[in-house]
Amino acid sequence: MSSVEPGRDPGGVTGLGVARSLLAEAGSVVVLTGAGISTDSGIPDFRGPNGVWTKNPEAEKVATLASYLADTDLRRRAWRSRLNSPAWAARPNAAHIALAALAASGKLHTLVTQNIDGLHQAAGTDPSLIVEIHGTMHQVMCMTCDHRSPMEATLDRVRAGEEDPPCRRCGGILKSATISFGQDLVAGDLRRATRAASECDLLLAIGSSLAVFPAASLVPIAHHHGAAIVIVNAEETEFDPMAHAVVRVPIGEAIPAMMS
Ligand code: NAD
Question: Is the CB of 40 within 6 Å of ligand 1?
């Protein structure tokens, strides 16, 4: 546990200095990432100033399980937009790469990501250290029989003219293997993330509005168990007052600088 008092750091460059010291002192780090770490890779976030929902609140409907299951037209639109997602061409940025170096140093207990883009794995972080708590866009799952298969093969079917391709095993509705609103998280993933938050001595939350639960609750869980908290995000979050450092420096600069 660090000697720095929560809420004492005003953020910005000062926050970065405190964050760097906390990271140097820490023996076991849990990282929680959100959409903000991937904006420099060309994938818009949801709630930032240029976020998908900030610009088009209708997009939230596509991410709601009941609407997706009930509405064929919405599913057709969802498959078309999956075809054109900027995430297929995205490459890891300096922050993903710096976190892969943290993993290689042996200090990373677990990386819990709310992102579905696979960029932490692409950056070289050991997949066994990663919990994709909101699933992955690189697979599809059948909402009836749970069968999973690669996204690319299903997108080929859409390109070939199937507007809403059904499961080839049971005829059920297919969806990207991501957690929609109204859909339960995978219990084992949530257990693993919660245990990690309660075991670490530093929790580093990067690029998340910390507005989506239960993922955001990892911050108070870690705090409750005595871990230091560092939040790196352009905007305020509900949990800033509990943080030992709040860093407002852009993520692509802040994370490599914290590791140096
Ligand atoms: P969010 O959109 O709610 O919040 C992102 C935060 O990051 C915002 O507060 C924004 O100001 C900040 N931010 C963006 N770019 C930044 C930068 N370069 N430097 C500093 N701060 C920056 O994201 P969330 O909390 O992850 O919740 C959104 C949900 O949407 C998640 O559950 C996630 O599964 C999903 N999502 C994933 C992706 C992805 O996989 N890349 C993209 C969009 C949404």
Answer: yes
State the CB neighbour count (10 A cutoff) for residue 256.
16
CATH superfamily of 1-43+92-134+186-260: TPP-binding domain (3.40.50.1220)
Instruction: State the pLDDT confidence band at 60, using cuts at 50, 70 and 90.
Output: confident
Distance CA 215, CA 208 (A): 10
Q: Is 195 in the pocket of ligand 1 (CB under 6 A)?
A: no
* Band of residue 59 on the pLDDT scale cut at 50, 70, 90: confident
Helices (H) and strands (E) in the chain, counts: 11, 9
User: Could you please report the per-residue DSSP string of 160-215?
Assistant: TT-SSPBPTTT--BEEEEEPPBTSPPPHHHHHHHHHHHHH-SEEEEES--S-STTG
If one residue of 16, 41, 45 were mutated to test the ligand 1 pocket, choosing by the most ligand atoms within 8 A of its CB, it would be 45
Which residues does the annotation mark as catalytic?
Answer: 134
Residue 164, beta-bridge partner list:
none
Tell which residue, 107, 32, 123, has the closest CA to residue 259.
Answer: 107
Read off the pLDDT of residues 132-163 as tens digits, 9 standing for 90 and up: 999 999 999 999 999 999 999 999 999 999 99
Query: Which tens digit of pLDDT belongs to each residue from 202-222?
Result: 999 999 999 999 999 999 999
Taking the centre of ligand 1 as the mean of its atom positions, its distance from the CA of residue 160, in whole angstroms, is 32
51-89+135-178: in CATH 3.40.50.300: no
Share above pLDDT 70 across residues of the chain, in percent, rounded to a whole number: 91
Tell whether pTM > 0.90. yes
